[in-house]
Amino acid sequence: GQNIDQPTEMTATEGAIVQINCTYQTSGFNGLFWYQQHAGEAPTFLSYNVLDGLEEKGRFSSFLSRSKGYSYLLLKELQMKDSASYLCAVKDSNYQLIWGAGTKLIIKP
Amino acid sequence: GAVVSQHPSWVICKSGTSVKIECRSLDFQATTMFWYRQFPKQSLMLMATSNEGSKATYEQGVEKDKFLINHASLTLSTLTVTSAHPEDSSFYICSASLGGVGLDEQYFGPGTRLTVT
């Protein structure tokens, strides 16, 4: 079966750095997405990785290792507004998105 | 950026009635639209995928006769919850994509919160 694993919840301090991990087992791989979802709102796109390595976009970076079936989202200089759920999703061989359950990130002052 | 709208943003209906939710891509033509359901504190659950002009593909466990999906044009898809029951109360989110390979991100609508009393 297809599976995406993320921690359920993480807590970090304002101004600090946090890394949210995602491991996946899917039938084929055509890219990995990270989305941010604030409570009661729809998800918004953060990043896309299809090749191994690190993609940096401002305070957010996303890393991919296809051989390990592993990705992480790195958030730097955390702000209170970063409190949200972070969803990892993988596009499989049929180009269908398989969603993780999401990681709820709590930022404390 | 690509914008997807949903209407209504929230709706309360009585048990046994039907509710229609519209999803529109405002500034692009969406080859594919997706309908998700999300219960409180849970992740997105894909209900169905629809391509313009063809029948929707429903995920396992989703009743196609209860959740009617119509994708009549490249900018509009509708989800009708028929004979709604309290257990259908949820956050329904649509998304749209251009389809195909590569960075084909899904653009999400703001969601519709359905409460069935």
How would you characterize the overall build of this protein?
The complex is a heterodimer of chains A (109) and B (117). In chain A, 0% of the residues lie in helices and 57% in strands. In chain A, the strands form two sheets. In chain A, strands 2, 4, 5, 9, 10 and 11 form a six-stranded mixed beta sheet that branches. A five-stranded antiparallel beta sheet of chain A has the order 1-3-8-7-6, with no helix packed on it. Chain A has no helices and eleven strands. The relative contact order of chain A is 0.35. The mean pLDDT of chain A is 94. Chain B is an all-beta fold. Helix content of chain B is 0%, strand content 50%. Chain B contains no helices and eleven strands. In chain B, the strands form two sheets. In chain B, strands 2, 4, 5, 6, 9, 10 and 11 form a seven-stranded mixed beta sheet that branches. Chain B has a four-stranded antiparallel beta sheet with strand order 1-3-8-7, with no helix packed on it. Chain B is globular. The model of chain B has no long low-confidence stretch (mean pLDDT 90). Classes of the chains: A mainly beta (109), B mainly beta (117). At the A-B interface, strand 5 of A face strand 9 and strand 10 of B.
SSE series of chain B:
EEEEEEEEEEE
The dominant shape of chain B is globular
Low-confidence stretches of chain A: none
How many alpha or pi helices of chain B? Answer: 0
The biggest beta sheet of chain B reads: 7 strands, mixed
Tell me the span between the first and last alpha carbons of chain A: 40 Å
| Intertermini distance of chain B | 37 Å
Order of helices and strands of chain A: EEEEEEEEEEE
Beta-strand residue fraction of chain B: over 45%
The count of β-strands of chain A is: 11
Q: Rg of chain A from C-alpha positions?
A: 13 Å
Bin the strand percentage of chain A: over 45%
Radius of gyration of chain B: 13 Å
